[in-house]
């Protein structure tokens, strides 16, 4: 089966998408928001393990303030706030439906959490850590991704870090094809037909761009980070960028 490419003009058949926000998860993934947390585990290999690794990495520096970019229903925010070493967290998301789900999910953390309905491409407040899960792949070009990494680096206080759990792809066609096949295996194991799995990949390509792991790390280093991949279950991985304590 061919490696999926953007399917020009193909539309996802979801109600009420004409009036959706610029990035609506309901329209993008073609699912009800109430089912997101269940379905995303069928879509993404190692989803829970990736969240845990990102959260533990953030907690390791005992941050006073964490920003969760494109936080969705708040699954990663919950994992981070469940770590007693973490002070406060700001949830940032552009999708009102997802932000409301996050509010309900994180209510138990009371004053330790705040919410912002806005794009993570806007200027960010100073903080000790930035994290994201399956959000930064919505940045469509390497130039824009590099600019975002620079914005995050400038927002971080010395000694801070970025922990990003996201999908990456191989740099060459053969590796990309093999990764998609392996990814499809995960969807099939979750009860999704193989043909439908590749249809999902084509649909997601309207908004998602998966860069090679090496390119992501290089962009982070160009922004000033010491960068490494600390966990991986293809195509899901956790990339961490460290800002040295001596940096300003």
Description:
With 248 residues, the chain is of the alpha/beta class. It contains 9 helices and 7 strands; from the N terminus they run αααβαβαββαβαααββ. Strands 3-2-1-4-5-7-6 form a 7-stranded mixed β-sheet, with helices on both faces. Helix 5 (96-106) links the parallel strand 2 (88-93) and strand 3 (113-117). Helix 6 crosses helix 9 and helix 7 (173-189) crosses helix 8 (194-204). It is globular, with a radius of gyration of 17 Å. Mean pLDDT is 89; it is low at 1-16.
SSE diagram, text form:
Blueprint (H helix, E strand, L loop, with lengths): L24 H5 L6 H8 L3 H13 L5 E5 L5 H7 L6 E6 L2 H11 L6 E5 L9 E7 L8 H14 E12 L5 H17 L4 H11 L8 H11 L2 E8 L2 E7 L6
Parallel strand pairs: 1-2, 1-4, 2-3, 4-5
Antiparallel strand pairs: 5-7, 6-7
* N-to-C SSE string, H for helix and E for strand: HHHEHEHEEHEHHHEE
Query: Residue-averaged pLDDT, rounded?
Result: 89
What structural category characterises the helix and strand content? alpha/beta
Specify the helix fraction band: 25-40%
The shape is globular
Low-confidence stretches: 1-16
Tally the helices: 9
Q: Oligomeric status of the shown chains?
A: single chain
Number of strands: 7
**Beta fraction:** 15-25%
Q: Tell me the distance between the termini.
A: 49 Å
Largest sheet: 7 strands, mixed
User: Within the largest sheet, what's the order of strands?
Assistant: 3-2-1-4-5-7-6
């Amino acid at each position: 089966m061919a490696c999926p490419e953007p399917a020009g003009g193909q539309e996802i058949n979801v109600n009420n998408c004409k009036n959706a926000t610029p990035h609506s998860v309901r329209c993008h993934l073609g699912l009800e928001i109430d089912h997101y947390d269940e379905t995303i585990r069928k879509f993404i290999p190692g989803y829970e393990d990736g969240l845990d690794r990102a959260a533990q990495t953030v907690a390791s520096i005992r941050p006073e303030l964490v920003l969760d970019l494109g936080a969705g229903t708040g699954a990663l925010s919950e994992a981070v706030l469940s770590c007693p070493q973490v002070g406060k967290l700001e949830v940032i998301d552009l999708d009102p439906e997802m932000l409301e789900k996050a509010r309900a999910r994180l209510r138990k953390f009371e004053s330790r959490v705040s919410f912002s309905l806005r794009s993570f491409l806007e200027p960010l407040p100073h903080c000790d850590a930035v994290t994201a899960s399956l959000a930064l792949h919505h940045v469509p070009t390497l130039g824009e991704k590099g600019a975002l990494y620079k914005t995050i680096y400038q927002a971080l206080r010395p000694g801070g870090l970025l922990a990003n759990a996201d999908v990456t792809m191989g740099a060459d066609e053969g590796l990309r094809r093999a990764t998609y096949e392996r990814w499809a295996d995960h969807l099939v194991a979750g009860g999704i037909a193989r043909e439908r799995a590749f249809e999902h990949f084509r649909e997601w390509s309207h908004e998602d761009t998966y860069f090679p792991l090496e390119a992501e790390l290089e962009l982070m280093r160009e922004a000033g980070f010491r960068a490494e991949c600390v966990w991986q279950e293809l195509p899901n991985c956790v990339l961490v960028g460290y800002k040295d304590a001596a940096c300003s």
